[in-house]
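From the shared-data thread, chain only:
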Amino acid sequence: MELLLNDFLWAAGMGLVGAVLFAGIGLVSGTDETTTIAPLTLLVVLLGVPPAGVFTFFLASAVAKHMTHAVPTALLGIPGDTMAIPLMQQAGVLRNLGVPHIALRKMVSGAIIAAFVAVPLAVLFAVLLAPFGPSITKAAPWIFVAAAVAIAYFSAGRWASVVALFPFVLVIVALQGLTAKFGVKLSISYFLGIAIGPLVADLFSVLSPADRKRIERDRVRSFALAPDVKSWGGYFPNPFKVLDASQIRWTLGTAAVSSATFVFSPVAMTVLLGEVVGSRVRHVYHRMTTVLTARNGVTESTYIAEALIPLIAFGLPLSPVAAGPAAPLFNAPPRFSVDAATGQVNNLHNLLTNWEFLGYGLLAVALAALVSYPFAMNYARSAAAFVARRLSHEAIIATFSGLILVIGVWEGGLMGLLVILAIGLVGGLLYRTLGFNTGVQFMGYYTAVLTVPALTKLIGV
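Structure, as tokens:
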């Protein structure tokens, strides 16, 4: 009983920390989930936080961020993060109509409903898939390469990403051989290099006269914020009253569908299900608000499902989210690991029960909802104005870059930094030019550490 109470207190405390922290970070446009959630989750793991605390920190962070990322998307006309990009068209139309506050409230209300739906459904689907776990674990090296090719094909780069996957894997294998000659074995540094790849590529662009003009701006960006209109009493509005009956049904339906899928790109699922909803609603204004509601709900449910289903059922990062932002839940040496030779795992899959995943998952969503939902509904305009006028985006990025450098030096010294830089530059350029996104790159990393050794053993090299 004492141990259970201790775990609950850790879970509640870390979930609250994650919710508060990422409710604020979500307000800053362009703060990609992989670049922000993943390094801080990794830091939480390496600091020795109990498994329940690690899990609730990650999940509360993701849920909170996908609520407040609606603020810059709806009010400022700039995507809060990668998952907010599919929301831009409808949000822009409603902002031009002078009702960005309506768009924001629909988006955030859809997110909170979808999050509570996604956790139990994702756990249920994971339990149904769990009997196949031992077979999948044994076949892990071959499943990873198949999943990598599938995820690459469904990324923005399509066949270019599929072809680029093979040289990218070879780069990782070559770097592993190089660092091994110096007695340095790295894993976290590869993960961090992939996470900040787009940032590294942009920093090199600043140094290049040939590419610098692409990112130069001749004026300070200006924003127009509509006046806020509050249509409810009290601090915590009821999301079921913010949405109409049709929007609630579409949110529940799309959340249920996306909670059962864990291999496809979250952005692709958001776009696809949004198109399905849009094709079924006739009235233009109602279509815009309903699509926004459903799509922002899908950003929550896909993230939850793509983290929970592979984690609970297999313990292997077999989804873009699991291989990206949620990667520290699976592989964070020396605490969590996926064995390269056997595919055996030692991570949250082994350390938490199905009931704990369900209970702590709902706790994380509740904490994120208590922090982010009323904050976004009541103070979105003033928060957006503060971020646009006072908060330096560069300072936020520099903070995370500094954290990544510290972790890289901790793991491998100078070699760790060089690997982060090399992987970041290669991955970032491939991301920018070919649409070879970070989810595909993470799958490429696991292919290098799992499939390549199995393949060389099979052919006797």
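The first helix runs from residue 2 to 25.
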